[in-house]
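note to self: the first set is below, dont mix up w the second
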Amino acid sequence: MSCAGETVFDNATWTGASPRLSVLTPFKGDDPTPLIEALGRESVEAEVVLLDDGTGDPELVARVKAGVEALQLPARLVVLARNEGRAKGRNRLVRHARAGHLLFLDSDMLPDEPDFLAAWLELIAAGDPAVAFGGFSLRQAGEAPEHALHRAMALHSDCLPAARRRLAPEKSVFTSNLLVRRDVFEAEAFDEGFVGWGWEDVEWAMRVARRWPIVHIDNTATHLGLDPDATIARKYEESAANFARVVAAHREVVSSYPSYRAARLLKRAPLRSLWRPWLKRYALARVAPVRTRAFAMRLYRAALYAEAV
């Protein structure tokens, strides 16, 4: 089936299913088949909807399609001819979902427990939360040297237990493992004005937190897609415009974030254009200690963001 720039493949159990949970997974270049296989080991009232956001790789599409066809869970694969981006692609996924609760789960994630979906369904049955974030870990990720910097940074600020995340509920929200009730998403979708990488999920959470509580639980999935050093720097460079968009809309919230406060401090420092590249150079130098490289990369990000504050 094809329409509106997309091609749709359904597996044999899709038609007529009435799922309680829709798992929504976009991908662009990443292979989501390990995630598909892991989800398929659970027998629960859930469906899986995947979006190829313009990868343009027929071999990958064929592999994912085979994984969809093999699933016992109802599953749909949507293939786009052109890339739409992170916010717009996720909004499109919701239009294909049928359940009352949506679980945004990134393609490079892998559930940490065999009852991952069952735990989400138990939470829905017990409290019907508007929004809940399960957290993520590096429990199943490798330790390749080229990923050491990303690993150090993720363990420092991202792989946090629920008790820590609850201290700033909207800040600790990522689309990597995020449960949203349908009525909430219909009222507050992702802002499609965000382009490239970063901040569209946190900005969404800032809007949502004004109207609904954000629950944090420990139902983690591993982030398998750790980036090499240069990719981290590129993503931070790409995210600067998105950070500026967040500051313009939510300065009262983001002003309490360490990244904002550091950016404000560095804004006062002279000759940023001269010393900022040296922060990046040090962060990418693998001969240096990983801990100090991670600190340099965070300073580099703050120096980029200084232009927005």
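second set (the one i keep forgetting abt)
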Amino acid sequence: MVSCLAVDEPRQFEDSRTMIEGPDISVIAALIGNPASANMLLALMGGPALTSTELANEAGLTLATTSGHLARLEQARLVTVEKQGRHRYYRLADTSVAEALECLMPLAVRAGHLRTRPGPRDPELRHARSCYDHLAGDLAVRMYDTFIERKIIARDGDNLSLTRSGHAYFVASGIEMAALTASRRPPCRACLDWSERRSHLSGTLGAAIFAHFLAQRWAEREAGQRVVRFGRDGERKIMTWLAAH
């Protein structure tokens, strides 16, 4: 009886798998689930494009092995590559890839799959970091809470929307709102912060706010690094900006 079950169960699994309709997520999941590929994708969450050499350092692999992983990621349309002279620069294909990674990170934290990298950079990473094209960490969560509390952004369950007073404020801040609403991407989206276990703001508005901080030189980031640092009085100016709502 036991031997019959051992033979029949794989066949039942194969039959049920062929009957499932819709996209096959196993291919993408396998690529993201590969430790080397995952390290490279997470490195690209910093926003700026990186070379294969920089990604090889992130993954701890030889350049030849890294090139093979990148080729598969490019074929799956998880990354794109841009050639500039002798160099090839890789970045995440689009915001949907970043959003998928963002959703996976809180699941990894909940399951206890944390990286152990003690050192002075850890508090900095938790305080403020880039999450693809928007700000994450303690500072971003406080900013999100302020927007909700002061009705700059309205929250209805999982849905966020920009209020009239919020729209007026961001226009006054010099943020081009017409360009944000023209995008297919939602202007406001709650993104669960893996270190704070609470939401920060993503979407086109979250990206525009972070770009505004960088343009004002209130914040700065290094290529290939996710830690966000602040210029002279930069954090104080951000808090003053928030208090002006």
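remember for set 2: Confidence is low (pLDDT under 50) at residues 1-16.
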